[in-house]
Design a protein that fits this description.
alpha+beta, Immunoglobulin-like, Rossmann fold, Jelly Rolls, 3 domains, 12-stranded mixed beta sheet, 37 strands, globular
Length: 639
């Protein structure tokens, strides 16, 4: 983070209403908060943001140290890489998945301690946003409480143990969250966090963004209004609340949304207020897609089967089919069938719509049955070390016809999930989006993304940092080159890391202006073109429009290591040595253009097509590389 933004960050935390995480002698911590659960990025780590201020009147802090303790074991003090501006400070700390951890912090000026603080409970685990109507909120017959003590909830200002009622959701009774959280914490051995957003008796129509119209009103009209035309529209309050609860968590800041809603759209007493299944599907899909667009990334949504009212009115086949269609079409994931929970699982001796105490616990079990197996798949990386697989046949979101707004990593367990469009710096909104072409004859009928001075960017700053720090890596691509638009001479970037400071760091691959391919790694020690610290591995000149399988490999090691370039075969066409910088700090990773539009849109752009792009977080051996290149060649018809 640039230092000029540091004071705004800390002030923003204060204005947002976050309480102090800790008061210490001369130091106030705004982050992390007590009982905060940070979403883990991969199975064994999460990044804790440490932010606060040194109290006025003391000495200026020049260094931060932290000590982590857990399970009765007190850790050692370790120095943090921190930024300071006036009295504000910020640092990040990677912690293994688990907790609760106790975090002690001290600010120093030289050898003198100028401030101290402490947070008793910090966890790295799984965070879920829970939304819908009353059975997602606090309307159960019996309040529940966490039995493990490893389940917490966030109301937008404070974290606390997740004992009912859940802050941020309607009602004062019980919810399924404490038993669901306990079961997940026990199964995955990490703390569980919730953002509870449910609002009792709401129709999906009330959750739509402001101004979205629909033909008939829900039973309760406090969040909708009728237009002079006779149509109705949402006032957007529920939508804005949901987005405002998600946004502070940041990109990839929670695992998934759990959506449980439908009773107020199904089988209404006044049949003119019942929502047809076709419209329910349309509106819920719009809620999902618009909320994702608003927060800038694509969290998964689980959608439950929900339409039960009372005995004798136990299901709406039309609404259930609409909910199921979202799973079948890949818009959402399959949630539990709560309509099946009847009789003793319902309040008032089985006569009510809400759950009894036993029903809340059974409801929690049903959510575990759906979420836990899926989560086990998400946290496991492939055994072969693959961390990125961008496939033009999968995970591509388009808008305005065939313009690509998002390309999603098909390796579920890796932190780098979404590569997204960028409009910053562009005179014409949307001009930075590549185009999806399907059914390409030269690719055996497969698809590719067409780049014309455009880019898709992974906004996670740290996802690919380790590739050039000594562990080694391998990347592969299926692509073709078109005529390059001459901007910066001989820099037409296929992919690459952006930079944090004055010198470039990370990986990049390019074409020269005449379509000669090259790649290299850059260690940040010198600027970036071309020397011992930034070698250029030149390959052949590509024919325009012809598809190739290309690959690059960086050997493992912390001294001087070998870089290699491969084109269509596993025999290197070029190689070079580079000294490894174990403290390299690359920034965001971009596909289609090495730098984002803010700097100089299109001036370092690649013009061509990409059908597949993969990265392995290790150097593949010769046999593995040959096998992977052959596999891609056969799939895409490249000989």
């Amino acid at each position: 983070m640039q230092i000029k933004h540091l004071t705004q960050l800390v002030l923003g935390l204060y204005l947002f209403g976050l309480s102090f995480a800790a008061h210490g002698a001369g130091l106030n911590l705004y982050s992390p908060l007590d009982f905060q659960v940070v979403q883990r990025e991969v199975e064994n780590k999460g990044i804790i943001i440490i932010a606060g201020v040194v109290a006025p009147g003391g000495s200026q802090a020049t260094a931060l140290e932290t000590r982590i303790s857990a399970d009765g074991k007190i850790g050692d003090w370790q120095k943090l890489v921190a930024t300071f501006q006036e009295s504000a400070f910020r640092a990040t700390l990677k912690l293994p998945a688990g907790g609760w951890y106790r975090l002690d912090l001290r600010a120093l000026n030289g050898d003198n301690i100028v401030g101290e603080g402490m947070v008793e409970h910090v966890g790295v685990g799984e965070v879920f946003v829970v939304a819908g109507q009353s059975n997602s909120a606090n309307h159960g017959e019996e309040k529940q409480s966490t039995q493990t003590g490893k389940v917490a909830t966030f109301d937008g200002k404070h974290w606390q143990l997740a004992n009912d009622p859940q802050p941020g959701a309607s009602g004062g009774g019980g919810s399924f969250l404490p038993p669901f959280g306990d079961a997940m914490a026990t199964r995955f051995h990490v703390p569980i966090g919730f953002i509870a957003c449910g609002i009792g008796a709401t129709s999906v129509r009330e959750w739509l963004p402001k101004g979205v119209t629909f033909p008939n009103p829900p039973t309760i009209t406090s969040r909708v209004q009728q237009l002079p035309s006779g149509a109705w529209e949402s006032n957007g309050e529920a939508f804005e609340m949901l987005v405002s609860r998600m946004n502070p968590l940041g990109s990839l800041g929670f695992r998934a949304v759990l959506w449980h809603q439908g009773e107020s759209d199904a089988n209404q007493t006044d049949t003119t207020r019942t929502l047809p299944g076709k419209l329910y599907r349309e509106y819920l899909e719009k809620l999902i897609r618009d909320s994702r667009r608003k927060i800038g990334w694509t969290p998964p949504w689980f959608v439950a089967q929900v339409s039960y009212h009372v005995p004798g009115d136990e299901a709406s086949p039309d609404l259930r089919a609409a909910q199921a269609s979202l799973w079948k079409d890949g818009v959402a994931l399959e949630g539990p069938d709560s309509d099946a929970l009847k009789s003793e699982w319902r309040e008032n001796g089985g006569k009510g719509v809400h759950f009894s105490g036993a029903g809340l616990r059974k409801h929690a079990e049903r959510w575990v049955e759906k979420v836990a197996p899926w989560l086990e798949q998400q946290i496991q990386l492939p055994a072969d070390g693959m961390i990125l697989d961008l496939d033009a046949e999968h995970g591509v979101a388009v808008e305005d016809g065939d313009r690509v707004s998002l390309w999603q990593n098909q390796v579920a367990g890796f932190v780098a999930r979404d590569f997204v469009k960028r409009d910053e710096g562009r005179k014409e909104a949307g001009s930075g989006r590549p185009t999806l072409h399907k059914g390409i004859k030269e690719l055996n009928g497969h698809s590719a993304l067409v780049f014309r001075g455009q880019e898709l960017v992974c906004m996670n700053e740290d996802a690919f940092d380790d590739l050039t720090r000594g562990g080694g890596c391998t990347w592969l691509a299926v692509l073709s080159a078109d005529g390059q638009q001459v901007g910066l001479k001989d820099v037409n970037s296929i992919f690459g890391n952006l930079k944090n400071g004055g010198n470039f760091e990370g990986l990049w691959a390019n074409f020269t202006d005449d379509n000669t391919v090259y790649w290299g790694a850059r260690n940040g020690i010198t600027f970036g073109r071309f020397d011992t610290n930034n070698p250029q591995l030149l390959g052949p000149k590509f024919e325009k429009g012809k598809y190739y399988v290309i690959a690059g490999r960086m050997a493992a090691g912390t001294g001087s290591v070998t870089l290699e370039l491969f084109v269509n075969t596993a025999t290197p066409v070029s190689s070079a040595q580079i000294p490894v910088n174990t403290k390299a700090n690359p920034s965001k990773f971009a596909i289609g253009q090495e730098r984002d539009a803010t700097n100089h849109p299109g001036h370092e752009s690649f013009d061509g097509k990409i059908a597949r792009f993969q990265i392995y977080a290790r150097p593949l051996d010769e046999a593995e590389l040959k096998g992977k290149m052959n596999e891609l060649g056969e799939r895409y018809g490249i000989r």
